[in-house]
C-alpha cells in the first residue's frame, strides 16, 4: 500500500492561452471551455478514488496531458 502524492493547485489556462496567442495567432478565449474541462479532470485525478473508476480517471487525465503536450510544450524549461 502506497500513499498517493499530494498535488498543489495548478492552472493550465494562463500558460496555454499565452502560448496559443503567441504561436498560433488564435483567440485563446475560444479554448475556455476545453481548458475548464481539463482543469476539472485534473481536480478529479488529484482526488481520485482508489478503485477501478479511479484508474480510469487517471488514464483519461494522462491521455489528455499527452495530447496537450504534443501541441503545447509544457515540460520543464519549455515555453508553456
TrEMBL record:
Residues in the signal sequence: none
Q: Which InterPro entries match?
A: BRO1_dom, BRO1_sf
PROSITE patterns, sorted: BRO1
Q: Please give the superkingdom of this protein's source.
A: Eukaryota
* Species of provenance: Mustela putorius furo (European domestic ferret)
One GO cellular component term, please give it. endosome
Q: Which UniProt keywords apply?
A: Receptor
Q: Which GO terms describe its biological process?
A: early endosome to late endosome transport; endocytic recycling; protein transport to vacuole involved in ubiquitin-dependent protein catabolic process via the multivesicular body sorting pathway
Report domain BRO1 positions: 1-80
Q: One Pfam family of this protein, by short name?
A: BRO1
Name of the molecule in the record: Protein tyrosine phosphatase, non-receptor type 23
Amino acid at each position: 500500500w502506497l500513499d498517493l502524492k499530494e498535488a498543489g493547485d495548478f492552472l493550465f489556462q494562463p500558460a496555454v492561452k499565452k502560448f496559443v496567442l503567441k504561436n498560433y495567432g488564435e483567440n485563446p478565449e475560444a479554448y475556455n471551455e476545453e481548458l475548464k474541462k481539463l482543469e476539472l479532470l485534473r481536480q478529479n485525478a488529484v482526488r481520485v478514488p482508489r478503485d477501478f473508476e479511479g484508474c480510469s480517471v487517471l488514464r483519461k487525465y494522462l491521455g489528455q496531458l499527452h495530447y496537450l503536450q504534443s501541441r503545447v510544450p509544457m515540460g520543464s524549461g519549455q515555453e508553456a
